Amino acid sequence: MRKKGITLGVMGLVAAGSLFAQEWGWSESLDMIWLFLGAALVFIMQAGFAMVETGLTRAKNATNIVMKNLMDFCIGAIVYWAIGWGFMYGTNGDVPGVFIGLSDFFKNPMDDPVYHRDWFFQVVFAATSATIVSGSMAERTQFKSYLIYTAFISALIYPISGHWIWGGGWLSDLGFHDFAGSTVVHSVGGWAGLVGAAVVGPRLGKYVKGEGGHISVKAFPGHSMPLAMLGVFLLWFGWYGFNGASTLSGSSPDIARVCVTTTLAAAAGTIGALFTSWIWFKKPDASMSMNGALAGLVSITAPCGVVSPAASIIIGLLGGILVVLSVEFIDKTLKIDDPVGASSVHLVCGIWGTLAVGIWGNVEGTAVGLLHSGGFAQLGVQALGIVTVGVWAFGTSLILFNIIKAITGLRVTAREEQQGLDISEHKADGYAGFQIFSNM
Amino acid sequence: MRKKGITLGVMGLVAAGSLFAQEWGWSESLDMIWLFLGAALVFIMQAGFAMVETGLTRAKNATNIVMKNLMDFCIGAIVYWAIGWGFMYGTNGDVPGVFIGLSDFFKNPMDDPVYHRDWFFQVVFAATSATIVSGSMAERTQFKSYLIYTAFISALIYPISGHWIWGGGWLSDLGFHDFAGSTVVHSVGGWAGLVGAAVVGPRLGKYVKGEGGHISVKAFPGHSMPLAMLGVFLLWFGWYGFNGASTLSGSSPDIARVCVTTTLAAAAGTIGALFTSWIWFKKPDASMSMNGALAGLVSITAPCGVVSPAASIIIGLLGGILVVLSVEFIDKTLKIDDPVGASSVHLVCGIWGTLAVGIWGNVEGTAVGLLHSGGFAQLGVQALGIVTVGVWAFGTSLILFNIIKAITGLRVTAREEQQGLDISEHKADGYAGFQIFSNM
Amino acid sequence: MRKKGITLGVMGLVAAGSLFAQEWGWSESLDMIWLFLGAALVFIMQAGFAMVETGLTRAKNATNIVMKNLMDFCIGAIVYWAIGWGFMYGTNGDVPGVFIGLSDFFKNPMDDPVYHRDWFFQVVFAATSATIVSGSMAERTQFKSYLIYTAFISALIYPISGHWIWGGGWLSDLGFHDFAGSTVVHSVGGWAGLVGAAVVGPRLGKYVKGEGGHISVKAFPGHSMPLAMLGVFLLWFGWYGFNGASTLSGSSPDIARVCVTTTLAAAAGTIGALFTSWIWFKKPDASMSMNGALAGLVSITAPCGVVSPAASIIIGLLGGILVVLSVEFIDKTLKIDDPVGASSVHLVCGIWGTLAVGIWGNVEGTAVGLLHSGGFAQLGVQALGIVTVGVWAFGTSLILFNIIKAITGLRVTAREEQQGLDISEHKADGYAGFQIFSNM
Lengths: 440, 440, 440
Description:
CATH topology of chain A: Ammonium transporter fold
Distance between the termini of chain A: 57 Å
Structural class of chain A: mainly alpha
Shape of chain A: globular
Largest interface: A-C, 85 and 79 residues
Strand content of chain A: under 5%
Number of helices of chain A: 16
Oligomer: homotrimer
Largest sheet of chain A: 2 strands, antiparallel
């Protein structure tokens, strides 16, 4: 009888038999549901990304963007099971490799609750990294090319640098600290997004050369602020799993600190971006404020477990200011067209958050941050990690997108782009029945 | 003082006194929050269904569909408390009945945490079964008739076949295995939806007889792909509670396996449907891909606890292919108009997932699946359950919808249907202010 | 290595060292993840409010409303950390103050898991109270004035009356019972919203004096029923954390009762409002039904832990009927323009739910409710709390909104209001590209 939970609970333990019965007590049980629920929360971030990205772009590409968000998770999950996990958490013989894991590909155990649990918790992080790119390359990238890219980032790019930090590799040996993935997850996705946006080129009409060589930069307003805001709330919600469950232990008192720093940094980031935009553009800008929330969240992702509430407010606030400056710099100065500002949010604030560990961090009772210890050692290690992971992610993305461009093409035709990718790629209107201005 | 959680926690235990103080330890506590959170996750699937169904149908019926989704949960919850629970989990004297439970109607204890907990976990499954039908009968069914239907499925149809499998009835005695409800929940809702769609008839203009008797089949595109995709993500998210918490125990190591198989099957289902639609229709179809995700999830619902990761990929992939074939078959060949493909997703893949237990299943350490044991016994039991539950759900739905049709009418008038059910049934525009093409 | 959760879990405990190692066992661990996950669920209610409020108002104000929802959480979180917490849960010397807490401002511990945990759980309640007002004052309030208001309710108004009830103050000494905040959270927000709506005045064209002095009342239909319904589901989902985790203990068997009463009351509230609107207005009204769900939830918030399932159905049902009467009364008779009916939902049903404790309540094994004990004592205490908190919230809100009105102004200009606040306040269209009727 399905309803007899208590009886079944005990029987489940007995059924598990020789393997787990002795070691699987309250602590292991708590870790299991903690990581399970944390992973489920991270999963819903996929919906958050989908809503933010579609909300901040044009209606004619709405189907295409949400399809990319769906497919990068699906393809990512399969290849991360088959290949990515082995590179990230596999061993070389009995020990973790320094640069790469090389075991556990296509791992298929019937009974291995620790592997199953950890894989589930890790796959949602891998998928987060992959999905960042769909925003940066929105509104002009071929669907099939995006699918190829997403297989490679989930199978290779993300797992290998991830191994260095979370898989027991050389950066973790050096003491590099990235609690929940400002560098491991966000900066890798951010680099790939920035490179992808540059290689695929700006959207038609984005940078128009006028008389005298002056280039005017056009903004394409997003088609649904409510959906974009819903996405921000869903991302923030999911981030509690992203950061909170990164304690990896359901019985860690550190969970408490993480939830406070995550909340305050996100709040401060939003406020930072709101007022920066208000002063600069003379309006309390909605899309900047939303990116400010995400900026605060990315910024606190690395240090969330090792800083105080007040420090988290400063980290978030600076992240929120930074994201506005970065969006403007990348758009107006670098002239790289990132429609939703994903590289500013995930790469720039990912770097900022990773550095913040070296400024305010207090790791396992030891003040390692510059402001507390007076030393630059941790900051140096953090910088080393940022640079090496950056070189890896930038380099491999550049190669990957150029290969895809050469073989299958990366960009839709101008006609398809004007028509919108919903019709040209999927032959389906995102908003059938609604009258939409033809120039949007 | 509300903030003193620790003190209150201990006091709560003491306050509970003689009844629970001794037996309510970490294992019972963990089961409680596990089933609570699992049920909450299943609850949010209602939002997922609402968004998928409204997104895949026309704007003029948007209010009507989300209202049906809201009301089927509300009416379902009340009648499942009053009546359904007793039929499903009641006893006949001291033992579970073979065919029906007959006690615990209008059960109203002040203190009975196990009942309260289990009822909450079960009611959200009952509501899932009921809400499937709103999609199949969308865009032409009377609101009041739908409310009558939903009371009956939650009070009678779902609980009685549910009793056979989860309530200690004859199918559970035979060893029928349905971990989280491919048959109990999804196929029952799917049968009711298919029958409802057939009895209420196709939407106006769906099947039009041309010259020479040839019938052309029209597709009515959905009005919001972003909302539909949001719904898919919410459903997938909620499914982690649906499958995961169906261990019924928060300390079961099986939770881990369930989360992996659920994730991989859903991913594989999406990929299966994407490529099937791409090859067949020459486009990567969005609504098919979304249904593919749901197909993978329904397919893995029965076997999620008893198969390996690799098997879950195959089960999901075949589910994703199957759902495309089934949507086309029901639409073009059977000419039953199921606007969102709910019967293909929930009935066809519900059957497929139930059979998969008999092919790959390894129940409590015993290989019962055909591919592992070489025997057909389990497959036979699974087939028996599918057929008997199918006869029950098909038969009772057919009677129910025909009685409703005879007494109150099942369908709105042609004029109301053309006008849209938002105006004709609720006198409220779903999208006030937006210009919508009048023929949509 | 990040994946080794079990090892890290034990190490985390050891690392926590002298402070927690002995006292931090399964019960404390369970409380931590219970309150963490409960708080995360309450957080997603912000998304629910945003979707309900934007869905039930006009498209031209969509960006403005979701921005208010975002910012009230962000500003609220910072000021509740800096100031509000100290007023609500601070002490006067060693004991809780009778009227106000006066310690722990800008509290910034590195290690204090109990504080961190409790702050996180409390801040989301504070933010809920604040965000109620954005709905009542929608479509004509200045953005900057709203930000000022939100700082004051989160820093002062909410924490001080909250201290009386949850902080160990005089109402808790008298035995006032408000399990999860019908009065503490909802009525305070509801009072502020009602006062704010009255002070800012009705929207242009809402109450138009015709010939002979007759005033006609215009309804402005909401622009997206699907988003509004999504919001209702998200609120309901989050309410499971709001009510469920208000046990404050993850090992309390009371969790079970709370989930049942919350579900049944919400369902009954929806049904009550549906049929009331159906009988009165001759149509099953969507926005009334949605408000009925919320009415049921607000009504059960105070008594959810202390009433039986059957009582919860009655409480919810009456809440659902009440909300329809109240919306009509406030709109047509009082002529206060509350665009989404927030004061009816949160204030009127907040009062009703608080009284219900005195009618049906059974607190810690003692029947205190009128219907069980035959005595009016508890009902008297409940009424006293309602009145005093009401005087406080009404009075301070009235002063606050009038000061803001005098200093910075509270309302946008008529031209800005007609244009819509998205353009006039944020210079951004909520739905760029969509054709929207110019008079909406």
